[in-house]
Amino acid sequence: MKCGSSLGEFFVHIQGGDFAWDVARTARIMSFAVFVHAPFLHFFHRRLDAVFGTVRGMSTTAKKVFVDQVLVTPPFFAFFLSYDTLLAGKGLQGVQERLTRSWWPLLQDCWKLWPFAHIITFNLPFQWRVLFCDIVRVYFGTVMSLRANEVVTTPAGTELPLKRSEDQVREKR
Predict the structure, then answer these.
(1) Hey, CA dihedral for 161, 166, 167, 169, is it positive or negative?
(2) Is-above-0.90 flag for pTM?
């Protein structure tokens, strides 16, 4: 996830022809990865195996993918976007705006990739799942970071950018 965040940081700034590493953004994503995402996935994958078994096959895989993508991922993304927004200092109004604008597109991005990736994931021996998911997550971490850092305009017309403004980039120079 951290690698994906750094790639996202690069792509956000390269669009403007300027690259400035946003240390605060990286710290937010990294803290989420270390304190929330990694521990959650460790226990979640073990729990899926405990509930549905370790037999590899389409029936077991379909159940695991369903639970992951339909029951767990939507609230997990809401938590991720809320966490990132609050740590960026945008408050509850920022969280509401971020969820309204970014949650559904992020979920759609997820559904374009992870159900197919998890057909492989849930048919691998447990010890190889983390490595496989980490490889896929380099790409999807970039997507999550980009979605979490889109500029949000409130109904009052106030922008709530979570990425650096052009003035902040100029001040750094």
Answers:
(1) positive
(2) no
